[in-house]
What we know:
alpha+beta, Chloramphenicol Acetyltransferase, elongated
Amino acid sequence: VADVGIDDDFFDRGGHSLSAVRLLSRVRSVLGAEISIRTFFENPTVAGLAVASARAAGARRPLVPAERPSRLPLSYAQQRLWFLHNLEGPSATYNIPVTLRLTGHLDRAALRQALTDVVVRHESLRTLFAEDGSGARQVVLPAEHARPQLKEEETPVGELDARIRAVASYAFDLRSELPVKAWLFDTPDGVRTLTLVVHHIAGDGWSMGPLARDLSHAYAARSRGGAPAWEALPVQYADYTLWQREILGSEDDPESEVSRQLAYWSTTLAELPEELELPTDRPRPPSQSHEGDRVAFEVPASLHAALADLARTTRTSLFMVLQAALATLLHRLGAGTDIPIGTPVAGRTDTVVEDLVGFFVNTLVLRTDTSGDPGFTDLLARVRETDLGAYAHQDLPFERLVEVLSPTRSLARHPLFQVLLGLDNNQEALDVLRLPGLTVDVRAPETGRAKFDLAFFLEETYGPDGTPTGLHGAVEFSTDLFDRSTATALAARLLRLLGSVTDDPHRPLGDLDVMTDDELAALERRNRTAHATPPRFVPELVEERAADVPHATAVISETVTLSYGELNARANRLAHHLAARGVGAEDVVVIALPRSADMITGLLAALKTGAAYLTLDVKAPEQRLRAVLDDCRPAVVLTDTAHR
């Protein structure tokens, strides 16, 4: 961004939560100052940041290469994946697949060597996992023993998608094989398709950026007959693993960082609902299969811009707006007023790990309170407080939080939350991939797996000038619980709700629009009951029926049945009698009779005179009947001996 002044607002100039965390990481490294995300949200200018830096405490110990112990422990995040890997067995649930469609001249030998270069550069990609009586440990293979597999296949065009889905679902044996694999498919049309699959225990979404950069650099060098001349990485993932444990400290020390953050989360998530009530299509099975599917949706550029404007005017972030909207949707669909939503955070709070492939991402539980039917902007204020507190305590591994809070363990659901929201504003992650002589089309194949009941993923896109150009969205859903049509409807409801909050952000949650176009159309059809009414009075219609079908049944009561001819004749006689008593237009005829043929005769007779009629409930108390009569002042009261 050009021409930034010391008083320009970071968020007004396109900043977001992720870029704010990266900025504070650089402040920590360069200035040695520890500034919280809350402080930065409250002082989002260069001038404000300078003041906050001067007042800030000293930064924590930086991440540097560490002496390797004989047993290299797993990071906290790896521990949970290792536990699930052993519990459920090898599966594709935690695979990260990327497919590259390559058009042009491919140097296969250079590609094979470049893959090896990348695996050698990043220790996490050449790490195996072992377990003995002392627990699980990482085993980093020597560089000369790290040779990733690149399998080449000739595949018919019609079978390519199925083969990609199959390899994207490859089940890694983490004890004996590298956590990365590659397949190269050749189709008769001359196109090559490279599919890379990385197990989540060795990388995360952010890692795809460094991986793509390094693969590009290595392929370019190898295709020229050389080797990549890159600088050595400042640290490796094993260094982070050891540093993480040192920084967090011991839980036996009440002054340690881990104790401080545990205290915060224990209070914040006390009495958290164990399971959200979601609009499922089927009962929850005793054990999750993790079978899943995805439906895609698009947030248009105009709505993207409006949501970004709403975030700026409310001093929040786009993620907070999306979180508030999702919580509102779940609340409106019956999930209650205490809505826990999970979200991934990059976890790269030190600049030296920004270019590293590894599993740094952590998961936060954001508890959203929708009680009291607040306006949407009021809900946003609550969300802002919740999220800033969570960001300030994001170092505590989710895995440890689960252990400490100890929710009722169940194979049927994810602990602490069942709905996840992810916003990817790291647009350039795979855009950096450049392979000389090739046009590269990057795609993310589906694995057919789902980690949660529901996961809403959105990816921001921007034009060259920073103008919002829309959000790519997807709803990932467990097929144990949901049909595809339900997930599609959820996406449509969320879009409708987002439009509603930008139209009027102060509306109470209960008044926001969450109905889909199809539901609105169905509701309109269901209520389309109006029909043309003949421009004639009831007496005329009865006269017409009496003339056309005089013997047809008109009235059936307990004591008598009248035809149209009989009803019309009786009403005419009574109408003449009423007219003789001066009853006509502007008069009221009270009918104090039980439901009977006589009551119908009286109604029709009154109408024939041009008067209005008023029926009384003959079982009502006498005082109430007298009050009605005094109020309407009838010309005549029609009754019988029993009710006089």
